[in-house]
Amino acid sequence: MAIIRLAALFVALSVNAHLISCTTGGGVIGRAKSKYSSCATNVVQQPGEINRGGAVVFNPKLDLHGPVKESSDLFIHFNAFPLCGIITPAPTIWRVGSAQIDGHYFLLTGPYGIKNRLFHIVKSVGHNNSYKIMFCPSGSSCKAVGLFIDADGLHRLGLTDTSLDVVFVKAK
User: Fold this and answer.
1) How far is it, in rounded angstroms, from Cα 121 to Cα 17?
2) What is the pLDDT of residues 102-127, one digit of tens each?
3) Among 73, 59, 62, which residue's Cα sits nearest to residue 17?
4) Of the candidates 104, 118, 103, which has an alpha carbon nearest to the alpha carbon of residue 62?
5) Residue pLDDT, tens place only, 15-47
6) 8: which DSSP letter?
7) What is the Cα–Cα distance from 46 to 161, expressed in whole angstroms?
8) Which residue in 54, 43, 47 sits closest to 27, CA to CA?
9) Which of 9, 48, 66, 113 is 20 to 30 A (C-alpha) from 120?
């Protein structure tokens, strides 16, 4: 597995990458269903290091096809559109849910828009070549994206004081 620095990964535009956790014993970022939804709209850490999960694409808010820069407003979305039901594609854009579940605000996927959908990538201090994802709503301070295990055992990404450090692995 080749770990890629942010600058090298995003020289080309719209590069697909897997986000792999480096702080919780491996695993990847993907999506899953929960008892609260019939579609795979929850942004989660999937079990195991072999399963890389869904590749994501980062798009700058001001130029959807421009270069990605640290600490700038970004949309994050999964690059695949799995079906939700028979013919409806599941949403792919990461967003913060508007209601707390189990006392936390979790990441979900939804349609394009600006509200609750702006993130930053910030270099992490703790691990070589690792980054953290921050939720940064317009005009507000940023909040770290971290990992929670909900009542059903699902490893969900949500807003926390402790970030989940990740590395980027270029998708094939």
Assistant:
1) 13
2) 778 888 887 766 578 899 999 888 77
3) 59
4) 118
5) 688 888 886 655 667 777 776 667 777 888 877
6) H
7) 21
8) 47
9) 48
User: How many whole angstroms separate alpha carbon 48 and alpha carbon 26?
Assistant: 7
Specify which residues 93 forms β-bridges with. 77, 110
Give the per-residue pLDDT at 158. 92
Rounded distance between C-alpha atoms, residue 17 and residue 124, angstroms: 18
114 DSSP assignment: S
Closest CA to 120 of 137, 106, 103, 105: 137
- What's the CA gap between 117 and 151, in Å, rounded? 25
Contact between 147 and 164 (Cβ < 8 Å): yes
Please state the pTM of the whole predicted model. 0.82
129: left (phi over 0), alpha (psi -120 to 50) or beta: left
How many Å apart are CA 20 and CA 50, to the nearest integer? 10
Nearest to 168 by CA among 19, 14, 2, 25: 19
